[in-house]
């Protein structure tokens, strides 16, 4: 079997490949150097993630593409990773969760105001563009204390910067594959695109350095964003546990990478699915009105009540998980996982798409969008829903994403109806491409109207 785009294959053919290989729970790609084993058994997958983290380690050599500013919490293992986790995990606590909610409400209002400018009863929204703008603005404000205007035309660069914060942030993400594949000496050549990429990396790095220095130099200053809290908390650690400034900077970049595109993609797919299912959209609105006792804007204390909005998020992530597998590797010796013996130096991947789309777990309607299935999960379903991973390496930003998603979706559902423009097919809206994350393959344009 030849696979040109591995992520695309895992998304499109993850489940069917297990069936085509004889309805097996595991199969392997093997070449002269190593084996890559694909697993779809949720019991084995959970064991790998939760219980075997020391024996089966993360293959961090595959994550060099995200080391734009150095190794970070995602791209490290062992003692180095534990030091990052010790510093980063507490920052995503209750205080910053409340901040995420506050920022999300403010930015949702800005989004509504931009729609009001259309001055029409029904208006077409480029949903992916607006969700990307929204998610980038949330992570900018909650993560870094930078409040962006909704329209980037209002952005201004500081006098000592050659790019605005938003521009440098977006371009660093855009050029990330270049930083990985092209040597710094080559990027320094006088080629316009190379110069743009180099300036973006330098400028965003300067913004991060300035924020980190401000936090460290003012330890008595109450942290007002996640990066400040991380920098201040790290300084208070004893030296052996402390993150260096470059490490804090690297973790700051990964916060953007992990926290903006994944949320934007999930929100876009969710709004498209609701537009395709008006009956589910109406049930969501009625449920939100009941859960909020008629309020139009949820308070932070209300988030735990919004079960239907959370179910929409969960079902969207089941159908469109933003990552494709949870990968681990064996060391110098073989490892026994379930009934399988894994050779030394082999990769084992828990294939998320296959387990999220397995009709033996989710029923014969597994391909359908049914948020209500999350109100009556079986034990096997609960074990099989893993978009944020489980165990020691589970996503530390899970709560951040949930608060952001649920708050925005609830506010939209209470104020707007969404429908599919004439001539737009389901395939047009839900076609996806597997790159670093799972993105809509086409512009997602939906019609919104005020309720």
From TrEMBL:
SUPFAM superfamilies assigned: Cytochrome P450
Pfam family, one: p450
Binding-site residues, heme: 395
Keyword Lipoprotein set for record: no
Alphabetized Gene3D superfamilies for the sequence: Cytochrome P450
UniProt cofactor(s): heme
Keywords assigned by UniProt, alphabetized: Heme, Iron, Metal-binding
Molecular function GO terms recorded: heme binding; iron ion binding; monooxygenase activity; oxidoreductase activity, acting on paired donors, with incorporation or reduction of molecular oxygen
PANTHER family: CYTOCHROME P450 (PTHR24305), CYTOCHROME P450 12A4, MITOCHONDRIAL-RELATED (PTHR24305:SF166)
Protein family according to the UniProt entry: Belongs to the cytochrome P450 family.
Record's protein name: Cytochrome P450
Species of origin: Rhizoclosmatium globosum
């Amino acid at each position: 079997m030849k696979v040109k785009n591995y992520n695309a294959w895992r998304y499109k053919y993850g489940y069917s490949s297990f069936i085509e290989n004889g309805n097996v729970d595991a199969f392997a790609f093997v070449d002269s150097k190593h084996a890559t084993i694909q697993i779809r058994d949720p019991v084995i997958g959970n064991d790998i993630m939760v219980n075997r983290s020391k024996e089966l380690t993360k293959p961090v050599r595959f994550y060099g593409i995200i080391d734009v500013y150095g190794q970070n919490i995602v791209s490290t293992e062992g003692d180095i990773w534990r030091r990052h986790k010790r510093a980063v995990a507490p920052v995503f606590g209750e205080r910053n969760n409340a901040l995420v909610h506050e920022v999300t409400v403010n930015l949702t209002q800005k989004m509504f105001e931009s729609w009001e400018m259309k001055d029409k009863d029904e208006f077409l929204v480029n949903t992916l563009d607006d969700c990307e703008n929204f998610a980038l603005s949330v992570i900018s404000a909650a993560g870094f204390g930078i409040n962006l205007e909704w329209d980037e035309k209002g952005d201004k660069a500081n006098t000592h910067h050659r790019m605005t914060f938003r521009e440098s942030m977006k371009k660093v993400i855009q050029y990330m594959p270049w930083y990985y594949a092209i040597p710094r000496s080559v990027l320094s050549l006088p080629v316009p695109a190379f110069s743009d990429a180099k300036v973006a990396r330098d400028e965003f790095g300067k913004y991060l350095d300035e924020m980190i220095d401000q936090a460290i130099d003012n330890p008595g200053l109450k942290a007002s964003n996640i990066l400040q809290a991380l920098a201040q908390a790290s300084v208070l650690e004893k030296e052996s546990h402390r993150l260096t400034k470059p490490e804090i900077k690297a973790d700051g970049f990964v916060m953007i990478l992990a926290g903006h595109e994944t949320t934007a993609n999930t929100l876009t797919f969710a709004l498209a699915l609701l537009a395709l299912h008006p009956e589910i959209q109406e049930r969501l609105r009625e449920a939100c009105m009941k859960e909020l006792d008629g309020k139009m804007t949820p308070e932070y204390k209300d988030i735990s009540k919004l079960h239907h909005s959370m179910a929409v998020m969960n079902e969207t992530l089941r159908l469109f998980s933003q990552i494709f597998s949870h990968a681990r590797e064996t060391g110098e010796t073989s490892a026994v996982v379930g009934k399988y013996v894994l050779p030394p130096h082999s990769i084992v991947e828990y294939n998320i798409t296959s387990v999220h789309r397995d009709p033996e777990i989710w029923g014969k309607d597994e391909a359908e969008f049914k948020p209500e299935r999350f109100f009556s999960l079986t034990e096997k379903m609960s074990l099989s829903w893993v978009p944020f991973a489980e165990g020691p390496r589970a996503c530390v930003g899970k709560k951040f994403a949930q608060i952001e998603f649920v708050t925005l979706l609830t506010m939209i559902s209470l104020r707007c109806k969404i429908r599919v423009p004439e001539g737009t097919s389901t395939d047009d809206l839900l076609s996806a491409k597997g790159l670093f994350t799972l993105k809509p393959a086409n512009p997602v344009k939906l019609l919104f109207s005020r309720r």
